[in-house]
Amino acid sequence: MLRRAVVTAAGVLAASFAASGALAQDTIKIGIVQSLTGQLTAVGKQVLGGVNLYVQQKGSTVAGKKIELVVKDDTTVPDVAKRLAQELIVNDKVKILATGITPASFAIAPLATQGKIPSVIMVSGTSSATERSPYMVRASFTLGQQSGIIGEWAAKNGSKKVVIVQSDWAPGAEATQVFTESFTKAGGQVVETLKVPLANPDFSPFLQRARDANPDTLFVFVPAGQAGLFAKQFIERGLDKAGIRLIGPGDITDDDDLPRMNESILGTVTAGHYSAYHESPTNKEYVAAFQKLNGMRPNFISLGGYDGMHVIYEALKKTNGNTDGDALINAMKGLKWESPRGPISIDPETRDIVQNIYIRKVEKRDGELYNIEFATFEAVKDPIKAAKKTN
Fold first, then answer.
1. What is the pLDDT of residue 391?
2. pLDDT digits over 150-159, tens only?
3. The pLDDT value given to residue 232
């Protein structure tokens, strides 16, 4: 009887191990490292809103595998992002990572390379982010895509003398570089470039300096989440009444901030890859579902999370659930689909997103402020990488 009991216990234990092993084998963990507290909290919340909506709509099973999201808050600190990514890879055994802002994506890149962990960039707009690791794919945007388009458009539509106000970090420098090249090539003049600290910014003194330079146009880059403060101080300093045109990439009239902005922002022209008022059935469904789930209007950052999950799901379908790093990255290259932002694809050479860029003007619709698109530049690639290729 004792022998029979031992054999039975061993059988139960073996079955238990087999079941747990099968469960682990049939579950794919995805590590989501985003800024959910700290300086750019609003960014992380929009990303997570898009991620959660996609999983809610498409389900948590792909290619017969259960998808498990492991969400971590990097507190908007790059070193924290790196530590959390390391823990996700070593302890949680994640097979895919989703990264956020530029400094965090840069910090995580070496880990992605070392562990051959496919990493989907859901926020960073800095061109070189995908060059930091061959295992990084961008589902967000590049600032060059927007800044180059608005520079060319502004020069052809009355802007002759520009002052630039930029946040003093890599994305700001890139936005300035591409805008300056595009604007001056089209015949415009950049009078001065003013750099504002990223942390705890006070735009007032910089706006006063900009006004004193007497430009006809102000080109601005501030990260999403700071647009509301900038717009408030732009109006307080009277730049709107001085007849100075405000232009920039989509961040400065961010859909998440617009509902709280003063109507003085009406008429502001930007270049962006998404507006919550984008006229398509796909987007109308997206906006309604996002607001219902998250209680806020989706902005362009949210699409990095939503479309980033699409990249992951479609790659897993193509590999039939195989999580080998090289197999997944190859499956992500060349993907094409219809997003709420419009038609997009992943460039197989650069692993960057290719997408439409829209010229938009802030107008009032249905009693609220929105970015209304009035011109479209189709299938825009990252101009910095495109320039390298031609040189």
1. 62
2. 999 999 999 9
3. 86
- Both tokens of residue 53? 């909506």
Written as one string, the DSSP assignment of 91-134 is TS--SEEEE-SHHHHHHHHHHHHHHT--EEESS---GGGGGG-T
User: Any residues with CB less than 8 A from the CB of 3 and at least 6 apart, and which?
Assistant: none
Q: What is the per-residue DSSP string for 323-386?
A: --HHHHHHHHTT-EEEETTEEEEE-TTT--EEEEEEEEEEEEETTEEEEEEEEEEEEEPPHHHH
Amino acid at site 226: Q
Quick one: tokens of 159? 């802007």
Q: Sorting pLDDT into bands at 50, 70 and 90, what band is 15? A: very low
Q: State the sign of the Cα–Cα–Cα–Cα dihedral 26, 28, 29, 35.
A: negative
Residues 6+ apart with CB under 8 A from 8: none
Residue 261 amino acid letter: M
- 222 vs 214: CA distance, rounded Å: 21
**Cβ contacts of 86 within 8 Å, gap of 6 or more:** 111
